[in-house]
Specification:
Blueprint (H helix, E strand, L loop, with lengths): L1 E3 L2 E3 L3 H14 L3 E7 L9 E6 L3 H17 L6 E3 L6 E5 L3 E6 L1 H7 L1 H4 L5 H10 L1
Helix pairs in contact: 1-2, 3-5
Length: 129
């Protein structure tokens, strides 16, 4: 929980979403897609999918994101996959973040699993495969 003065405050899902998006945009994440999960699953309220230009970039974005969330007093974020940097999952509780290298994102195409159209991803997949 974040401490503001003497009051403790937890970010609401929309506030967490804004923090994550702005952090990823600052880190030059590419092709950000936000999926509203409120009517689809109880796992989280939102999912964000983004691309980094390399494994190192993906891992750095994930680490920076976890730090930004902790700096905001929301210490529950954790990242999986930073060692390889191909696909990193950051779980904040209310928002799930998937960070991919371009080829890995095109291969798994998780947007399609959630019924979200991403024309840029289809073009990239066509070039790669």
């Amino acid at each position: 929980m974040a401490t503001i003065g003497t009051a403790k405050q937890t970010l609401k899902p929309g506030e967490m979403l804004s923090l994550i998006k702005s952090t990823l945009e600052d880190d030059k994440a590419e092709d950000l897609v936000t999926i509203d999960l409120t009517d689809k699953t109880s796992l989280a309220d939102h999912m964000i999918i983004a691309t980094g230009s390399s494994s190192r970039r993906v891992a750095a974005m994930a680490e920076h994101l976890v730090e930004a969330i902790k700096d905001a007093g929301q210490g529950r974020a954790s990242a999986e996959g930073t060692e390889q940097g191909d696909w990193v999952l950051v779980d904040t509780g209310d928002v799930i973040v998937h960070l991919f290298r371009p080829e890995v994102r095109a291969f798994y195409n998780i947007e399609e699993m959630w019924g979200v159209e991403n024309p840029a991803l289809k073009q990239q997949a066509a070039r790669l495969y």
